[in-house]
Amino acid sequence: MKGYAWAAGATALCTAAGLAMRGRFDLVNIAMVYLLAVVIIALRYSRGPAIVTAVLCVGAFDFIFVPPAGTFTVDDVQYLLTFAIMLAVALIISRLTESVRQRASAQARLEVAAETERIRSVLLASISHDLRTPLAVMCGASSSLAERGERLSPAERQALAQSVFEQARDMSEQVAKVLEMTRLETGALELQRDWDSIGEIAGSALARLRERLAAHRVIVELPEDLPLVRVDAALIEQALANLLENAARHTPPGTLVRLRASAAGSELVVSVEDHGPGLPEGDVERVFAKFNHGTEGTAGGVGLGLAICRAIVRLHGGRAWAEQLPGGGTAFRFSLPLEPQPELPAEVATGPAA
Amino acid sequence: MTTILVVEDEPEIRRFLRSSLSAEGFRVVESPNARRGAIDAGTHRPDLAIVDLALPDYDGRELIRQIRAWSPMPIVVLSARHQEHTKVEALDAGADDYITKPFGVGELLARVRVALRHAARSPAGQVLKLGQAQVDLERRRATRAGADVHLTPIEFRLLGALAKHLGMVVTHRQLLAEVWGPTQVGQTHYLRVYMKQLRDKLEDDSVRPRYLVTETGVGYRLLADEA
């Protein structure tokens, strides 16, 4: 529709220009101005508007400029050639443009497919790397138990069984992360938003990671009057747990980890700050990207934790980012938009007398 | 002998449930689907049912409703991760507690024991021991480290609603209906505010509560020291 409006607009513009040129320029040059309009519209829009432009331009040129002016009669046959050329140009250019456009979009599709393919292969490589070790442990340990359990001491049996259990639990965590990322990316996820307190969510995330963070010193700093947020609590807990897990994974035991939250303007910012080795220059930007294992790459994990965190936070209308801390160490932060706080009933009005 | 009904379609999961429950001295009845589960619940009259929510013939939640129509037997639900919504529906349909797959046997046995104990216990007046804090729900008195703690009437009611299901999860909806009334079941923020107040008054570390536990996306669980 827009194309047709531009067709009319371009014709009007050319006519105005032509009227200004009349007397000083040959009619042929005025025809050139119309031709320019036809070319531009054909380049910019599809074939329909191009043909309409050609017809309108031919009509306007004929009616206003070609003698006898004020009629569609044509004295000189040579102008018929002008019309034919204008129409031909419209058709040829619009077809050219069309085919260029098609090629460009095919190219873009190819690039998307290539990117998807790249992500898929990185994902597969990363999954098989991260799952192969636990699978090998589980196969080995459980086959020892199944095939020669009676020859092992109770303590050895116990140790093998324990390692199968631990590896399986780890693997299940990692598989869950891959599924989570897929769920987030395909948009197959509906937020179950409800009023929640970051304090409670932080408590649950810390409880979930109690074992992983046992060797770290964790300090929680939450202001008393922190406003409530309307979020999908299970997802935000996951986002925060991923930040905490990241700190546990990438900083040495004994490192101080600070979990804090504060309300700033129309958003609430949650941070996990560690006083670990910090990120190399450049990683501050890259760290939330998918499959980033950190530079050392030895700490394990599918490398999806921070990407999942960011995807969850974005779904909630917030941001996730990393910052170098001035005294060394790294802060991983995310923000959540704040909404007007819900009202609470006065207790005296609803509760029975004490 | 205490009988436990296991309704689960995966034979390998039934196998380890059977061996670990039998090792604890329970008699185990196994049903591979919901239809069979409903029949077995009637004929074996188990003391407790463990119900997988994803069953091949019909939904575990429907089975829970059917059992609840005639029996108060405790029901513990097995559910997949990320299905808070389904868990809540199962709990609101009458399940007493849930456990998320994958789980360790220790965790499952703890849930089973709490649910069995709850079914056997009379809901008479109790004194809750929450670490340094003690709450006498009947006399409406609370102390912490020997000193009196003032709890508001709503705080007492909330604690009472949780104590009725001591050790088990109570959904937001159930708590709101019981404390503020059935028209207020959507006002989850009341719970956030009052749970924080209770934790500030009773817990040693209100951010990392030991007794008033959050079940994210589902509800709350009150734990207490053995009296």
Describe the protein:
The complex is a heterodimer of chains A (354) and B (227). With 354 residues, chain A is α+β, with helices and mostly antiparallel strands. Helices cover 59% and strands 12% of the residues of chain A. Chain A is built from ten helices and seven strands. In chain A, the strands form two sheets. Chain A has a five-stranded mixed beta sheet. Chain A has a two-stranded antiparallel sheet with strand order 1-3. In chain A, a hairpin with a 2-residue loop joins strand 4 and strand 5. The C terminus of chain A is likely disordered. Chain B is globular, with a radius of gyration of 18 Å. Chain B starts with a strand and ends in a 5-residue tail after the last strand. The model of chain B has no long low-confidence stretch (mean pLDDT 92). In chain B, the strands form three sheets. In chain B, strands 2-1-3-4-5 form a five-stranded parallel beta sheet, with helices on both faces. Chain B has a four-stranded antiparallel beta sheet with strand order 6-7-8-9, with no helix packed on it. In chain B, strands 10-12-11 form a three-stranded antiparallel beta sheet. Chain B is built from eight helices and twelve strands. Chain B is an alpha/beta fold and 227 residues long. In chain B, helix 2 runs parallel beside helix 3, helix 6 packs across helix 7 and helix 6 crosses helix 8. At the A-B interface, helix 5, strand 1, helix 6 and helix 7 of A face helix 6 and helix 8 of B.
Number of strands of chain A: 7
Low-confidence stretches of chain A: 295-300, 348-354
Order of helices and strands of chain B: EHEHEHEHEHEEEEHEHHEE
Helix content of chain B: 40-55%
Structural class of chain A, please?
alpha+beta
- The backbone outline of chain B, from C-alpha atoms, is globular
Characterize the largest beta sheet of chain B: strand count, sense, and whether it forms a barrel.
5 strands, parallel
Number of helices of chain B: 8
